[in-house]
Amino acid sequence: MNWYLEVLKKYAVFSGRATRREYWMFFLFNTIITLVIGFVEGIAGSLGIFSMLYSLAVLIPGTGVSVRRLHDTDRSGWWLLISLIPLIGVIVLVVFTAQDSRPGDNQYGANPKIAAA
After folding, report:
1. What does the buried/exposed string (b/e) look like for 64-103 if buried means 16 or more CB atoms within 10 Å of the residue's CB?
2. What local confidence, expressed as pLDDT, does residue 115 receive?
3. Chain centre to alpha carbon of residue 6
4. Which of 21, 25, 56, 106 could be 3's S-S partner, Cβ–Cβ 3.0 to 4.6 Å?
5. Helix (H, G, I), strand (E, B), or coil: what is residue 109?
6. Could you report the average pLDDT of every consecutive run of 10 residues in the chain (117 residues)?
7. Contact at 8 Å (CB) between 65 and 10?
8. Per the structure, how many domains does the chain have?
């Protein structure tokens, strides 16, 4: 849960780098929270207003951590737009975010693995 809160603390930070763990733990907790909210709204028979509000609330932090993850693999944040290509774009983005960090510093900053150690 700490990884999820760290991303929320960096609400609109699009610079720097994010480790794989930071990205995927945010993704995991975000998915779990979304499923729980959807399940509760499904039982309650509501219109999905809480799901929409939650999605809007995590849109900017989710985009920020995705851009920082791409920076960690030494790619521009603009590669995030590849997900707009149906199916293939999402697969390419998953491969990019699953790759290991580029060793050492790059144009986006210091390696977060080394900085954390």
Report:
1. bbbbbbbbbbebebebbebeeeeeeeeeebeebbeeebbe
2. 61
3. 12
4. 25
5. strand
6. 88 91 95 95 89 95 96 94 94 95 87 72
7. yes
8. 1
Q: What is the Cα–Cα distance from 80 to 96, expressed in whole angstroms?
A: 10
Rounded CA separation 98/94 (Å): 6
Alpha carbon distances (Å) from 88 to 13, 24, 31, 73, 75:
27, 20, 21, 19, 18
Can you give the pLDDT at residue 103?
85
Q: Global pTM?
A: 0.89
Containing domain of residue 96, as a range? 1-116
**Phi, then psi, of 108 in degrees rounded to 5:** -100, -5
In contact, 62 and 30? CB cutoff 8 Å? yes
